Amino acid sequence: MAAAVRRVRDLARRHSARFARAIPLIASENLLSPYAKELLISDLHSRYAEGVPGDRYYEGNEQVDEIENLTLDLARRLFRCSFADVRPISGTVANLAVLKALAEPAAPVGTCRLADGAHISSAAFGAFGLRGVRPVYYAWDDARLTVDVPRTRAILRDARPQLCLFGLSLFLFPLPIDELRSTLEEIGAVGWYDGAHVLGLIAGGEFQDPLREGCQVLSASTHKTLPGPQHGILLAETGDAEALGRLRSAAFPGVTSNHHLHAMAALAVSLAEHLEFGGAYARQTVANARALAAALHERGFDVLGADLGFTRSHTVAVRVTGEGGGAEVARRLADAGIITNKNLLPGDKSPKHPGGIRLGTPEVTRVGMAEREMGAIAELFDDLLHRGRPAEEVRERAAELKAGFATLRYCFGAGEAAYRYYDLVGREPG
Fold first, then answer.
1. Are residues 354 and 369 in the same domain?
2. Do 217 and 323 lie in a common domain?
3. Are 266 and 400 in the same domain?
4. Is residue 10 part of a domain?
5. Is 368 a member of any domain?
6. Tell me: the pLDDT tens digits for 282-321?
7. d(CA 212, CA 113)
8. In CATH, what number is assigned to the domain containing residue 94?
9. At 411, which CATH number?
10. Which residue of 152, 295, 303, 388 could cross-link 378, Cys pair, CB 3.0 to 4.6 Å?
């Protein structure tokens, strides 16, 4: 048994050491601040708190009630809304709660297609299929990389969905919710926004503001452009008390039991930090994404959205069919110390062999990189994929670049030597 413990801890240390030397460009990943991270190993991890503050099924929750009320207050302040629920334990669980609350089985629900950037929870094999709703797909404008408003209006009027989901997993540009608002009102559909990827940008004022543009409900995970724990959140701005009641009961007992109190407490810290630092962090995250996209484009890469400024989010999409395809390119980059993921792009058919890769700047921004470093990263791409430099050479240069950026920024305690994020635990099990 001790050997198994040593093996797991050794693998975790090796994983941490790898990422300490790598350039992490996964759009859906970020780093947790030290004050938030310490709460994940607190006694809260061992406890249950089913119900709501002041009305629990377990005793011993007095401090938990205060933490949850504080977390809710911070969420409402950050997102300028009247309703929040922090009991979903992930973004997909939050999506399930919305579907349970606001869509009947077999009901039509509007959404984008996976190939246009939608998240897998809106697919038949995801949360949509679990709830049994019928997707109604919006028309997509390949040139503008967003929903085609005139054609989508016609689709919505014909299908009359109960619920219309806006939100993407490949999220380059804001979606035209405000332009479709009158159509949603006409057909009586509830506007729903999956803000998992862009939650921190919304809070930082650097993307769109869905709760003011025509969506009544926002669901999200809390660990992407909002650099918090892996958790979920529901936010809403509506006068429909019945709908809010359904959302609460969908969160519990509908799709969660205990809601991971340690992660909820870490979320409170992350929300407080974003109130303090989120504007600056969001601005730099977007600036870095646009700088990385432009630098790659200058080096001959087929970056989507070149005529549109490449991106207005944290995400960059690159079609790499000429370099071997998304799966092959992502593998080669990983071998060279640059962590990305293969990704479907408009027109692709196979999610396992897509034509693109997706890049994101949340984590490199979190450790202090700026536009200058985005140019250096693009040079590594060019050397590996266009100039044929060996992976070992590129990997060493990636590690050299990363060596100057191992301390977290945009959080309380930033820059203190004790809070170097990639420090490794050294104790061996007895």
1. yes
2. no
3. no
4. no
5. yes
6. 999 999 999 999 999 999 999 999 999 999 999 999 999 9
7. 25
8. 3.40.640.10
9. 3.90.1150.10
10. 295
Q: Last residue of some domain: 271, 304, 339?
A: 271
pLDDT tens digits along 205-250? 999 999 999 999 999 999 999 999 999 999 999 999 999 999 999 9
Instruction: Single out the residue of 267, 335, 286, 312 nearest to residue 146, CA to CA.
Output: 312
Which tokens go with 286? 């977007």
- The Cα-based distances of 420 to 108, 233, 330, 400, 426 in angstroms read 49, 28, 28, 17, 15
Q: Which residue has the tokens 């011993």?
A: 60
Beta strands per DSSP E along 114-179: 134-137, 140-141, 146-147, 163-166
**CA distances, 89 to each of 80, 205, 234 (Å):** 22, 25, 11
Burial of 65 from C-beta contacts in 10 A (0-12 / 13-18 / 19+): middle
- Report how many domains make up the chain: 2
Q: How far is CA 386 from CA 322, 389, 428, in A?
A: 10, 8, 44
Residues 320, 390: one domain?
A: yes
Contact 310, 292 (CB under 8 A): no
Tell whether 344 and 415 lie within a shared domain. yes
Among all chains, which residue has been given the structure tokens 């909002």?
226
The per-residue b/e assignment along 126-142, b for 16 or more CB within 10 angstroms, e otherwise, is bbbebbebebbbbbbbe
Instruction: Please name the amino acid found at residue 183.
Output: T
Tell whether 81 is covered by a domain.
yes
236 token code pair: 């809403």
Please report where in the chains the tokens 């929750």 appear, as a residue: 61
Full residue range of the structural domain in which residue 367 is found: 278-419
Q: What is the pLDDT of residues 97-108, one digit of tens each?
A: 999 999 999 999
CA distances from 77 to 70, 235, 294, 411 (A): 11, 11, 35, 18
Are 191 and 217 within 8 A, CB to CB?
Answer: yes
Nearest one of 183, 205, 210, 185 to 195, comparing CA atoms = 210
Q: Could you tell me if 243 and 97 lie in one domain?
A: yes
* Cα pseudo-dihedral 410, 416, 420, 423, rounded to 10: -150
My answer on whether 99 and 202 are in the same domain is yes
Same domain, 295 and 250: no
